[in-house]
Design brief:
This protein is an alpha+beta fold. It has two domains: 5-164, Regulatory protein AraC (Jelly Rolls, Sandwich); 172-286, Orthogonal Bundle (Arc Repressor Mutant, subunit A). It contains ten helices and ten strands. Helix 2 (123-139) packs antiparallel against helix 3 (145-164) and helix 4 (172-190) packs across helix 6. The model has no long low-confidence stretch (mean pLDDT 89).
């Protein structure tokens, strides 16, 4: 199964959480992709489908879609549909903080036979979600918008938990390991442009390297090394929008061998760094 491309948080939102109204014109990734944060969609078009972890789900207006981190997914709009949807993005740390000892929001993202990422609500129940979307739009014009936005997204998740919790709890082993996994991700993101080893990471977090690799793979289905590489290539792609020489971009993103950088970049994004820069220039010229 194709895992898609990695989409960095820096390309989507800043802070602990964020939200957007997406349609055909401004969807940030019209391809199979995944990322290291959670997503909550409210579909507002007439009909479309979501491909999530290799399964296609039909959606219609008012349906709510929950996407776990590191899960490949994409929206496929209907032929005559504007594909409009509201999407909230939530960092793992905030999602955990939103929960209580008896009600973990991680439970919404549990995978299993009786669990589904797509949920339908009746017209009356959908009104509360519509009201929250209206409040979200208005919050950007008010003082303390950051506090308001965080509270509104918290309410979105609380309503979803109340409406859709199946009774199946999130894998307890993965749940317990997530704080450590978040430490790994935070360290990698902070030191992305530097040269560091698994031993350096293990020393910083005070666990053995093999144990960290096990926890990370268990929680994300990815290896630490592949995650570092994807983050570095994503960072390089962002830097290529500027005039920085390509060999300098490689150095700035932790690659000290240009040939290695070139091969990994082309494998992940399907084109060379120079070709990618040309695409960016052409795209900017059109817009």
């Amino acid at each position: 199964m194709d895992s898609g491309i990695f989409l960095s948080k820096s390309n989507v939102f800043s802070g602990d959480c964020g939200g957007d109204l997406h349609n055909r014109e401004n969807e940030p990734a019209r391809c199979l992709h995944y990322h290291d944060f959670y997503e909550f969609f409210v579909y507002l078009g007439s009909s479309a489908s979501f491909v999530i972890d290799g399964t296609e789900y039909a959606v219609s207006c008012g349906d709510i879609v929950l996407v776990d981190m590191f899960t490949p997914h994409m929206m496929v709009p209907g032929r005559d549909d504007n594909a409009e949807c509201f999407v909230a993005h939530v960092n793992p740390e905030l999602l955990i903080a939103y929960g209580t000892p008896n009600s973990s929001l991680l439970d919404l993202f549990q995978k299993g036979v009786n669990c589904t990422p797509v949920h339908s609500v009746g017209k009356e129940d959908f009104i509360k979600y519509q009201n929250l979307m209206d409040e979200y739009r208005a919050a950007h014009k008010k003082r303390g918008q950051g506090i308001l936005i965080k509270a509104i997204i918290h309410l979105f998740m609380a309503y979803a938990y109340s409406d859709f919790f199946s009774g199946t709890r999130y894998d307890s082993a993965v749940s317990r390991s997530l704080p450590i996994v978040m430490q790994i991700i935070q360290y990698i993101n902070t030191h992305l442009s530097e040269k560091f080893s698994l031993q350096t990471l293990a020393k910083e977090i005070n666990y053995s390297g093999s144990y960290l690799c096990h926890l990370f793979k268990q929680a994300t289905n990815k290896t630490i090394s592949s995650y570092i590489q994807e983050k570095r290539i994503d960072m390089a792609a962002g830097l290529l929008s500027h005039s920085t020489p390509i060999n300098k971009v490689a150095e700035m993103t932790g690659f000290h061998n240009y040939s290695h950088f070139y091969k990994k970049f082309k494998k992940q994004l399907g084109c060379s760094p120079a070709e990618y820069r040309i695409k960016l220039v052409n795209k900017q010229a059109v817009t």
